[in-house]
Write a structure and sequence with these properties.
heterodimer, A: 130 residues, alpha+beta, Glutaredoxin, 5-stranded mixed β-sheet, 6 strands, 41% helix, B: 597 residues, alpha/beta, Rossmann fold, Ubiquitin-like (UB roll), 5 domains, flat
Chain lengths: 130, 597
């Protein structure tokens, strides 16, 4: 399908916006929880593939629905890679750092299932964006 | 199901821990237990908030209230007032210096968020392999606007107006570069994206390509339209396989949507992009050498003029822009040049991405408005120096730049101010060094890199950098003379004046700037055969103070080369001819008997 005008582009934008709005505003388009994993070279080198696999494993073990895993680029917090961001409807997005296999499983079993935040792992977002 | 209704987040960064945030956490936990709220409120220790000057920091989630300079004594009041009664403790809110008002919500704090992301706006936010997510965040809207509403002149005029300058290091005005190519004769023109990121320690271009490849593709099409080029080339080093993979995916998706290819947005404008892989030579970041490499020739620079805007790829007018420069284009088109001009300093507009590395706590990528001071970057965003050591210097501009010392920590950084203090912006690598770094050795490290990367075309760079490296090696081996220092200085200035391209012209900078700021260290190496940092192995001789040694044998047991002699309960002696200056004995001695050089 080709885009031949700004209107065509707008249509795609509006459709996609519903899916990504959660990340910035916590506003929920589809009542889905998103888990974003930083998968740039820095993240992968720090073990983000293991993190990703652990998240997927726990999600399938717990038969969780309405949850989506997304791989994203580098957030800049290289000192704490692998980085995982949790976007839940109605809540401020939350960042976790140094997420290894165990912490990834804790994120699903504690944060997602029991709303318990993980100690020592939260990173505070320190930038504004154009 | 949600048992815990609120979280008290306390900063556990190094800065805040040193101002007693651990005690604060225990005090808060105790206060919650007393109030009987410990089952529904939990206290969480977080990473650095990047606001260390105001620590310890406490944030209440989800209320988004932000307290500063909280002491363990304040814990009870926070629990009693905020948690139990739901009333904000106004005394502890942060007061914004300029506004004189107390800010309740954390997101209102402009001062706290020192970083402002333009080039990195989508990195970590979108899935780089999904074009729809890019489009959701206004992707390709700038291209649509350019092709349907603007003439090429409008575009380069707008970029010129914005004050955007090349982010690869030189700082040439981007709009002017586009205008020059546009006004060159001929219909066959090219636009090249320079993704040959070569500075040791810099990785912002890689991160942009990996995290937001479409922002570069879109800007290249816009640049092509503005300059009259129909072919774009991305020159990227083969060491960046993930960036290459994501670029290829992005190009396929953009082609499917008709956003690159023929008749884009129905405007009749055709543009396509190809990828050329480089072998990762530092000199190929220089635009004329890069163009030769794209042509399949040796990556060697040629004299300018003629500039690539007149005669570049295949002898045709060519624009070469850096990845980060491209990443700034679309927000300028969408928000207008006045918006961009508002950010930054008099001569340097917008933001700059820095790769913060070295002996700093929060290693990472930071994007700050031009005019931010090094102190803010290193101590607030970077969280200070690792292991509580002191700050000595920071190297900006990689092997082409120089060191900046405590004297200049409060200089607002932009292209000009960095040049004035003997360094340069470069591509944005920022290597922080603590007070145990040997500056002569640092100069040697960079010269080792440049003499290796010199392409060999011009004599001054090929032979000059090699000779400088040899002199520095001689000094760090303890064989330096005062003549060597003079020769080093003369050589450095000569190479700077006579080298053909930027690589050679800037290669002496690390030597010149360390000789300027740390001359006494050079003198110590030469005259006293002494390296105060203990880095130069040949000069750092450990010894044992006989009066303090009790003969516990701890040092002899850890010495990896067995150069410490002595019987139990007798004074030990180090054989300095065998000593490798590893420092293991110093760490092992419990009686301060080992003298560190």
């Amino acid at each position: 399908m080709g885009i031949k005008s700004l209107d065509d582009l707008k249509k795609i934008r509006e459709d996609s916006l519903k899916k990504v709005n959660l990340r910035e505003t916590g506003k929920d388009g589809e009542n889905i929880t998103e888990i974003m994993v930083g998968m740039a070279t820095c993240g992968i080198a720090a073990g983000a593939r293991v993190t990703l696999a652990a998240l997927l494993d726990e999600i399938s073990k717990n038969n969780l629905e309405n949850i989506r895993i997304i791989q994203v680029g580098c957030l800049g917090y290289c000192h704490s890679e692998p980085i995982v961001q949790i976007n839940q409807p109605g809540k401020e997005p939350l960042l976790y750092g140094n997420v290894d296999d165990k912490k990834a499983r804790d994120i699903i079993n504690k944060h997602i299932l029991k709303n318990e935040l993980l100690d020592d792992s939260i990173i505070i977002n320190t930038f504004q964006k154009a | 199901m949600d048992k815990i209704r609120s979280h008290i987040m306390v900063c556990g960064g190094t800065g805040c821990v040193s101002s007693h945030s651990e005690e604060l956490i225990s005090a808060l936990k105790a206060a919650l237990v007393t109030a009987g709220y410990d089952q529904e409120i939990s206290v969480i220790k977080t990473g650095c908030f990047g606001f260390c000057g105001q620590g310890p920091i406490v944030k209440i989630h989800p209320d988004n209230v932000f307290y500063v300079q909280v002491t363990p004594n304040d814990a009870e009041e926070i629990v009693k007032e905020h948690i139990v009664k739901g009333r904000t403790v106004h005394r502890l809110l942060f007061e914004e210096p300029e506004m004189k008002g107390k800010l309740e919500s954390h997101d209102d704090m402009t001062f706290y968020k020192k970083q402002y992301r333009i080039a990195l706006r989508n990195c970590g936010l979108i899935n780089p392999e999904n074009i729809d997510e890019y489009i959701a965040f206004r992707g390709y809207e700038a291209l649509g606007k350019v092709l349907t509403e603007m003439t090429p002149e409008d575009v380069f005029y707008m970029i010129k107006e914005s004050g955007l300058r090349g982010r690869g290091g030189g700082g040439f005005p981007t709009g002017l570069k586009w205008e020059l190519t546009s006004k060159s004769e001929g219909t066959e023109k090219y636009i090249i994206c320079n993704a040959d990121e070569g500075d040791p320690g810099a990785f912002m271009d890689r991160s942009i390509l990996e995290g937001d490849p479409h922002s570069v593709l879109e800007a290249m099409v816009i640049g092509g339209y503005a300059t009259g080029a129909h072919q774009g080339i991305i020159y990227i080093r083969a060491e960046y396989p993930l960036a290459i993979k994501r670029l290829k995916i992005a190009m396929d998706q953009a082609r499917d949507y008709g956003l690159i290819g023929k008749d884009i947005f129905g405007s009749g404008f055709d543009f396509d992009i190809i990828i050329r892989l480089g072998a990762g030579a530092f000199v190929c970041g220089e635009e004329t050498a890069l163009i030769h490499s794209v042509e399949g020739l040796r990556g060697e620079p040629t004299k300018k003029p003629p500039f690539p805007s007149e005669s570049g790829y295949k002898g045709k007018p060519t624009t070469v822009n850096n990845v980060e420069t491209f990443a700034n284009i679309c927000p300028i088109i969408l928000n207008g040049s006045p918006w961009f001009k508002n950010i930054g300093t008099e001569t340097s507009k917008g933001t700059k991405v820095f790769a913060l590395a070295g002996n700093v706590n929060n290693v990472g990528l930071v994007e700050v408005p031009m005019g931010t001071t090094l102190r803010e970057i290193i101590f607030d965003i970077g969280g200070g120096i690792q292991d509580g050591k002191g700050f000595k210097a920071v190297q900006t501009g990689g092997p082409s730049g120089g060191v900046i010392t405590t004297l200049d920590l409060d200089t607002p950084i932009d292209y000009e101010s960095l040049k004035n203090i003997g360094s340069m912006m470069g591509s944005g690598g920022m290597i922080v060094m603590n007070d145990t770094t040997c500056m002569v050795n640092i100069a040697k490290f960079y010269l080792e890199f440049t003499q290796d990367e010199s392409c060999g075309k011009c004599t001054s760079c090929r032979i000059g950098t090699k000779r400088m490296f040899e002199i520095l090696t001689k000094i760090t081996n303890g064989d330096g003379t005062m003549d060597d220092l003079e020769h080093l200085d003369a050589l450095a200035r000569m190479i700077k004046d006579t080298a053909l391209c930027g690589l050679g012209q800037t290669a002496p900078n690390p030597v010149l700037s360390t000789m300027n700021y740390f001359h006494d260290e050079y003198l110590e190496h030469v005259n006293d055969k002494y390296c105060r940092a203990g880095t130069c192995k040949a000069l750092s001789k450990y010894s044992i103070i006989a009066d303090k040694c009790i003969g516990c044998t701890a040092c002899a047991r850890v010495c990896p080369v067995k150069c410490i002699e002595g019987k139990a309960k007798e004074v030990h002696v180090i054989d300095q001819s065998k000593c490798i200056s590893c420092g293991a004995c110093f760490d092992a001695c419990k009686f301060d008997a080992v003298l560190k050089p």
